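Exercise 7. Given the encoded structure of a 467-residue chain, write a plausible sequence.
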């Protein structure tokens, strides 16, 4: 009997079932997709590990930053206490002052030989060069450098200037060495600034010290950020810096402001500070820009440095200069830390570029200079009003040498009460003084306000006005 028509033969059934079975069996994995999947999984795990590492590194970094900040401030406070107990300043002065004074006296014939070539044109030349490297000149020049767009150079030179000023003036007042005797030396003081400089002690020469450090750092900055320099350019730059430093040193001797030992001392100290600064400048800059506890740390540092400053044999303007530049450094650090990503990053336009033309830069000067002077005036007025109230509230006896003469009469009337109230605070400050000069705080705050306006307030105004 023939099979029924609906019954399929074996070969027909196989032809139908085999494709179905084949479709049901999973295909072997594609090597490309498998590799891609494994790579993504590994990258995900790696990113998680890296994220955990970075987070842990930041936490440990914050702990280390806090640690070195505390150690630094405690170290300075401990030095203030130890130097006060052991009379370090007086002991160093008794050892160094006679030796330096003999060198100053023995160097007088050298000064007189140089001054034999005196001429009114040489007087004008060396007086002008001295003004160019003076503290007031840098105080006026550095704001313009910020506004040209060279922000890193400006902040580095400002902090370097503050450091040089502090170290140099500390050594001046510790040694308290005399300047060349006048007469027989002829002393040329063409400006009021030079007359005030003549009231300071001699060793080391601040003009020589500042010139070595700032011109040396400027040369380093230019050569480091210009990749097309050749050996010839480097030699020319180094030669120009050496000639400039030599002219400044010769000019200070010619003007009768310094002896040879003062110039050599300023040169040696400047080279040492410059070498040190070149090795730590990037660390300092990174800390100011993106560090932790920058404002609080620098404010505490500025406060302690006022008390760490040595007492000179006789009063000089050196401490006032330090206080002013100490305030400038504080204001610059606060402003830069707060507004770096807005106004002071590496991509800000530079002067003479299409984004910052020369006319726009002139507009910045015409608007910026009056603004910072106004801020300085307001900061001084605010400090004169608030600091006496704060001192009275805390029971700190204060006096004023120039800014608030009325305080001296008030201090005399309440002298006994204030001494009783301030006993504990004076122990905290490691001081044997019966009162504190409030002019120091006023000067610190007014220059801090001025510097803050240079890098924060004024750039904000420029941004709003499109300058």
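Solution.
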């Amino acid at each position: 009997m023939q099979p029924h028509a609906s019954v399929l033969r074996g070969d027909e059934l196989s032809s139908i079932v085999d494709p179905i079975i084949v479709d049901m069996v999973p295909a072997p994995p594609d090597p490309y997709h498998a590799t891609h999947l494994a790579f993504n999984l590994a990258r995900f795990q790696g990113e998680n590990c890296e994220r955990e590492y970075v987070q842990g590194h930041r936490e440990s970094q914050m702990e280390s930053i806090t640690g070195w900040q505390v150690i630094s401030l405690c170290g300075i406070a401990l030095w203030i206490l130890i130097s006060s107990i052991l009379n370090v300043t007086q002991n160093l002065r008794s050892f160094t002052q006679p030796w330096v004074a003999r060198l100053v006296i023995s160097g007088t014939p050298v000064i007189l030989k140089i001054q034999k070539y005196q001429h009114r044109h040489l007087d004008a030349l060396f007086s002008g060069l001295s003004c160019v490297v003076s503290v007031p000149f840098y105080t006026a020049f550095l704001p313009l450098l910020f506004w040209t767009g060279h922000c890193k150079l400006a902040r580095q030179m400002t902090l370097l200037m503050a450091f040089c000023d502090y170290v140099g003036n500390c050594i001046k007042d510790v040694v308290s060495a005399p300047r060349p005797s006048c007469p027989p030396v002829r002393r040329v003081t063409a400006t009021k600034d030079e007359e005030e400089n003549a009231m300071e002690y001699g060793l080391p020469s601040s003009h020589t010290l500042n010139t070595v450090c700032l011109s040396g750092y400027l040369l380093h900055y230019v050569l480091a950020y210009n990749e097309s320099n050749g050996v010839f350019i480097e030699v020319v730059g180094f030669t120009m810096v050496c000639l400039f430093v030599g002219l400044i040193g010769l000019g200070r001797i010619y003007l009768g402001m310094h002896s040879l030992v003062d110039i050599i001392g300023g040169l040696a100290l400047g080279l040492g500070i410059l070498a040190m600064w070149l090795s730590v400048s990037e660390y300092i800059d990174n800390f100011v820009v993106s560090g932790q506890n920058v404002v609080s740390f620098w404010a505490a540092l500025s406060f302690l440095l006022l008390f760490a400053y040595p007492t000179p044999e006789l009063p000089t303007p050196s401490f006032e200069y330090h206080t002013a530049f100490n305030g400038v450094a504080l204001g610059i650090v606060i402003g830069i830390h707060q507004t770096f990503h807005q106004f002071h990053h590496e991509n800000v336009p530079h002067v003479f570029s299409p984004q910052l033309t020369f006319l726009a830069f002139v507009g910045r000067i015409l608007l910026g200079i009056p603004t910072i002077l106004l801020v300085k005036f307001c900061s001084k007025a605010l400090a004169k009003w608030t600091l006496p109230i704060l001192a009275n509230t805390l029971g700190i006896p204060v006096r004023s040498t120039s800014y608030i003469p009325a305080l001296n009469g008030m201090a005399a009337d309440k002298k006994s009460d204030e001494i009783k109230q301030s006993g504990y605070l004076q122990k905290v400050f490691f001081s044997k003084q019966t009162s504190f000069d409030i002019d120091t705080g006023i000067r610190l705050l007014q220059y801090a306000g001025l510097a803050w306006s240079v890098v924060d307030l004024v750039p904000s105004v420029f941004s709003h006005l499109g300058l």
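Remark. The beta strands are 398-399, 436-437. Students should compare their own answers with the one above.
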